């Protein structure tokens, strides 16, 4: 099915003569086309949010908070520091590697205000994974939480990094809480491995020096790249989507139209940001969308600390929670969550991975509210579709396309398939990326004439426009909303001298949606599962490591020798595992 007859791609006539059958599901307060974005940049957006919401709390975390005015002022201070002390210029890249802390929005918006391009790095990255990011993005600076600075120290020689800013967990808190939290993390919990980077600048010192310097407006344009967000893309293999200020500003406007309609604008709302801001979903929805809307974002640093998480929810009595299916399930498994008052909760949005129907049913029974499921991908900034928030969600679907978003369901020849038939989901809208960083070949594979993005996901469309994801053309393993690439696991395993061949795939997991499983052909029969697991700990972040390792005599391959990952699962019926 098509939704845009003037596309440069071949297309069939719209089914039923209706270009966009889902428009009827938008309430009168939500236009089907978003208005033109007035800000030139995300820096302008921060300035406008401060003017509109002033001394209201914008972010809170670990018992501290920042108002909209404080975010605006501190971002300017950090921008001035980056320009004057580090000499960074428009277009330079800067890595931010930290969990959800008050420092994150200050560093993020400060870097953008200086005209820099932000590169988000997962704090769980191993040295090898961080090295790949640094080699590809070639940043001049990094802002890193002290817990992970030892990895940066190892990578500094031979990298393009010239400058390091280091922050401790409690840096944005008032005394004595700041010192207590930082002391506990380092000396009591031993969460900060030893490191030595003599030239590194403490985050608080950077802000002070910036407050004494002059910020110079880099004159940003909407088309300027704001973010390099690493992803496996639609074809696997790590690459960075170039997301512009225009992409990100438009996507939050597309998404927040329904949110504003559901929550209303009569008062400030409290929203739980449980997903990490270095993930593009939370970045766009929480750090940009809800911030621009004037909401109070409660940042959760460690959602795995379930007692602390539940306590924060109880204290905040939020209007909304953004999470993934597995996190919702973990919350409901905590006995104290059922005792928590949910009277204020108006909206819960699950993104990043498929929402399990059992989780949706339990959530409704426990809270009296529905979970709204949506869909997106990094290359689309990321939100593409969502179930309308003013009606009961249609379970099993990813909802309807956002305003100003066109979709098509196409076959291998890029021709439209019949309504209801499966095909690859193609997307067009202002949220679609500019392309992959320094990778024109991969960009050309997914960005087609007319501005269409091939998502790599196989979908169907109902008669009234609701979309269902039925399969993935790409082989990415989705672990709690994070992309894990089979090739990366295989490459890491095959670096072990006793491994001859390796194949990885995803298998269902109650705790994470999917989990990696690794099939290995031994080069040396003395290789044990324990030995290989210890080796992979040095090469892969925890969520990327295989849950199961199976030793096999051979791997299924194509006639040109490529591992048939889809056929790996069929091996389980015929092989025996070998352990230690």
SSE inventory with pairings:
Blueprint: H1 42-53, E1 57-61, E2 64-67, H2 68-84, E3 93-97, H3 103-113, E4 117-120, H4 127-137, E5 141-145, H5 149-155, E6 163-167, H6 177-188, E7 201-202, H7 203-211, E8 225-231, E9 239-244, H8 245-263, E10 270-273, H9 280-293, E11 296-299, H10 306-316, E12 320-323, H11 325-333, E13 347-350, H12 357-367, E14 371-376, E15 383-386, E16 400-401, E17 406-410, E18 423-428, E19 435-436, H13 440-446, E20 447-448, E21 452-461, E22 467-472, E23 477-479, E24 482-484, H14 486-494, E25 499-509, E26 513-522, H15 529-537, E27 548-551, H16 565-568
Parallel strand pairs: 1-11, 3-4, 3-5, 4-8, 5-6, 6-7, 10-11, 10-12, 12-13, 13-14, 26-27
Antiparallel strand pairs: 1-2, 8-9, 9-19, 14-15, 15-16, 17-18, 18-21, 20-21, 21-22, 23-24, 25-26
Helix pairs in contact: 1-2, 1-3, 1-9, 2-3, 2-7, 8-9, 11-12
In short:
This protein has 580 residues and is α/β, with parallel strands linked by helices.
Could you list some keywords that capture this structure?
GMP Synthetase, Chain A, domain 3; 580 residues; 9-stranded mixed β-sheet; 8-stranded mixed β-sheet; disordered C terminus; alpha/beta; Rossmann fold
The chain-level mean pLDDT equals: 90
In total, how many beta strands? Answer: 27
The termini sit apart by 53 Å
The helix content, as a percent range, equals 25-40%
Indicate the CATH architecture of the domain at 38-221: 3-Layer(aba) Sandwich
Low-confidence stretches: 1-17, 576-580
Q: Give the C-level CATH assignment of the domain at 38-221.
A: Alpha Beta
Judging from the principal axes of the Cα atoms, what is the shape? globular
Number of alpha- plus pi-helical segments: 16
Structural class: alpha/beta
Radius of gyration: 24 Å
Strands side by side in the biggest sheet: 2-1-11-10-12-13-14-15-16
Strand percentage:
15-25%
- What CATH calls the topology of the domain at 38-221 is Rossmann fold
């Amino acid at each position: 099915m098509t939704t845009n007859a003037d596309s440069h791609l071949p297309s069939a006539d719209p089914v039923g003569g209706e270009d966009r059958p889902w428009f009827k599901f938008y309430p009168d307060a939500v236009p089907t086309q978003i208005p033109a974005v007035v800000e030139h940049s995300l820096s302008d957006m921060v300035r406008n949010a401060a003017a509109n919401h002033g001394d209201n709390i914008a972010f809170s975390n670990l018992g501290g908070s920042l108002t909209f005015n404080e975010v605006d002022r501190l971002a300017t201070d950090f921008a001035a520091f980056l320009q004057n002390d580090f000499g960074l210029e428009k277009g330079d890249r800067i890595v931010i590697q930290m969990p959800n802390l008050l420092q994150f929005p200050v560093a993020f918006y400060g870097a953008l205000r200086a005209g820099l391009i932000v590169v988000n790095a997962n704090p769980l990255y191993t040295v090898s994974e961080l090295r790949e990011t640094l080699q590809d993005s070639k940043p001049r600076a990094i802002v890193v939480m002290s817990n992970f600075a030892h990895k940066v120290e190892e990578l500094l020689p031979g990298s393009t990094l010239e400058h390091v800013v280091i922050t401790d967990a409690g840096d944005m808190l008032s005394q004595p809480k700041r010192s207590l939290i930082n002391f506990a993390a380092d000396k009591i919990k031993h969460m900060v491995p030893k490191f030595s980077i003599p030239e590194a600048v403490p985050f608080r010192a950077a802000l002070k020096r910036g407050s004494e310097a002059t910020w110079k407006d880099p004159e940003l344009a909407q088309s300027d790249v704001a973010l390099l967000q690493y992803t496996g893309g639609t074809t696997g293999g790590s690459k960075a989507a170039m997301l512009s200020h225009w992409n990100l500003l438009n996507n939050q406007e597309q998404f927040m139209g329904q949110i504003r309609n559901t929550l209303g604008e009569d008062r400030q709302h409290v929203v739980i940001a449980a997903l990490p801001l270095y993930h593009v979903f939370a970045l766009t929805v929480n750090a940009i969308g809800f911030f621009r809307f004037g909401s109070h974002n409660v940042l959760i640093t460690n959602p795995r600390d379930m007692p602390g998480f539940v306590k924060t929810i109880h204290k905040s009595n939020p209007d909304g929670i953004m999470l993934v299916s597995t996190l919702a399930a973990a919350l409901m498994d905590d006995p104290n969550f059922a005792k928590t008052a949910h009277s204020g909760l108006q909206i819960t949005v699950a993104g990043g991975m498929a929402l399990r129907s059992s989780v949706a049913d339990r959530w409704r029974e426990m809270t009296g509210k529905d979970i709204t499921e949506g869909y997106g991908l990094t290359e689309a900034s990321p939100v593409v579709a969502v179930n309308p928030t003013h009606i009961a969600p249609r379970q099993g679907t990813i909802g309807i396309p956002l305003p100003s978003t066109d979709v098509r369901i196409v076959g291998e020849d890029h021709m439209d398939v019949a309504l209801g038939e499966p095909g690859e989901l193609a997307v067009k809208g202002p949220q679609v990326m500019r392309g992959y960083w320094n990778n024109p070949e991969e960009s050309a594979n997914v960005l087609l004439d007319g501005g269409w993005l091939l998502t790599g996901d196989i979908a169907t469309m109902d008669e009234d426009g609701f979309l269902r994801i039925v399969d993935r053309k790409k082989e990415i393993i989705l672990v709690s909303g994070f992309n894990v690439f089979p090739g990366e696991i295989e490459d890491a395993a095959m670096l072990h001298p006793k491994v001859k061949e390796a194949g990885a795939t995803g298998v269902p997991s109650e705790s994470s949606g999917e989990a990696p499983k690794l099939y290995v052909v031994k080069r040396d029969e003395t290789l044990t599962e324990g030995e290989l697991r210890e080796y992979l700990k040095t090469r892969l972040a925890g969520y990327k490591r295989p849950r199961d390792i199976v030793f096999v005599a051979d791997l299924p391959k194509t006639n040109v020798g490529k591992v048939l990952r889809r056929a790996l699962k069929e091996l389980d019926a015929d092989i025996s595992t070998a352990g230690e």
